[in-house]
Amino acid sequence: MKKRIFLSPPDIGREERRAVAAAFDSGYVAPCGPMVDEFERETAKLAGRRFAVAVSSGTAAIDLAMAEYGVDSSWTVISPALTFIATVGPAWHRGAKLEFVDSDETGNMDCSLLEEALAARRRTKHLMVVGVDLYGRCCDYGRIAKLCRRAGAVFLCDSAEAVGARFKGLPSGSSGEIAVYSFNGNKIVTTSGGGVLLTDDHGVAERARKRAQQSREAVAWYEHREVGYNYRMSNILAALGLAQLRRLPEILEKRAANRRFYGRILPLLDNTDGNGWLSVAVMGSRRERDALMRTLAADDIESRPVWKPLHLQPVFAGCRSWGGEVAETLFDLGVCLPSGTSLSAADRSRIEKAIRASL
Ligand SMILES: Cc1ncc(COP(=O)(O)O)c(C=O)c1O
To answer: Domain check: are 251 and 170 in the same one?
Structure first.
């Protein structure tokens, strides 16, 4: 029987097993321990940040960012339309008003439209912009930061998909008051489930760390001046993440090789300085895209349409949208292709055969 080829499965080897076993043997099985501390140091270094707080998911890191600013119904949160729902889920749960901005030709947020959206919100006191590094390609950190500064908006950088990517020489996650990475099982570096909150502000890091541990005061008994969350990353999973991080250069090279392979046969969405998390082809028509997905599926090869834009999501009907046609076109024509680190030569030739048959 042919094996199924997945979109972006975890690539776990002997080093990861050894690291997890060592963490297990150390007795630190709880959501604290030396591996968590080291994982925080390593991810902060990777993002060029002073502090990292390791948590149970990227979504939890975004939620802690919302908690830091006290996001509630008095806030407006502006995000790109083309992203995964977790970018705005925590803001939605807190009652914030959401607004969505269309993509430019890279798929990332169109900064001219963002400028318009911010100009229309001149009188809004509580304003946040979430920049997203779509499919591992950084959004325009410099321009978004400048627009936010001018508008008095908080800049949160959702680099969940972009571990290892760069923007004009800077690492992903290096911009914004707070940035987040995800280490979910489908990302290029995984802790099975996990994330980090990144910041240069000591106070922000300390408050996030405290909130992630039920906001317990530093006394022997259980004392709470506020109600927190249970978001900390486990020491076992941090060990897995550290072993994965040690392989990051190799992982990035393999993702880039996948992109080079697809680039020879299909038109791809730009991923300049990206981490190649997912290679995304942009087909000539919806029919062509759907036919390609069907042919791949017939050979048990997983593929997915690009994110369904948030302004088209039934749950967000009624939210304001700035443009939307570029994101809608990418949703119609775009297809995410198998991009796993473990994609073999045999897998590639199977995929190529299916693609050529469809074309
Ligand atoms: C853009 C984006 N933001 C946030 C998240 C949430 O990360 P997690 O799955 O670790 O909660 C993800 C990934 O799943 C994502 O793709």
So the answer is: no
State how many domains the chain has. 2
This prediction has a pTM of: 0.97
Residue range of the domain that includes 179: 14-245
Residue that finishes a domain, picked among 224, 245, 266:
245
Q: Are residues 105 and 203 in the same domain?
A: yes
pLDDT in tens, 154-206: 999 999 999 999 999 999 999 999 999 999 999 999 999 999 999 999 999 99
Q: Are 23 and 239 in contact (CB under 8 A)?
A: yes
- Distance separating alpha carbons of residues 62 and 159, to the nearest angstrom: 10
- pLDDT < 70 positions in the chain: none
Ligand 1 pocket (Cβ < 6 Å) reads 57-59, 83-84, 86-87, 132, 158, 160-161, 182, 184, 195
Q: Are residues 282 and 188 in the same domain?
A: no
6 within domain boundaries: no
CATH code of the domain containing 88: 3.40.640.10
- Please tell me the distance between residue 325's alpha carbon and the centre of ligand 1 in angstroms: 24
Question: Which residue has the CA at smallest separation from atom 3 of ligand 1?
Answer: 87
Residue 185 has what pLDDT? 95
The torsion region of residue 121 among left (phi > 0), alpha (psi -120 to 50) and beta comes to alpha
Strand ranges, E, within 232-301: 279-282
Contact, 182 vs 195, CB < 8 A?
A: yes
| Cα torsion angle, 116, 120, 124, 125, sign | positive
Q: Are residues 149 and 283 in the same domain?
A: no
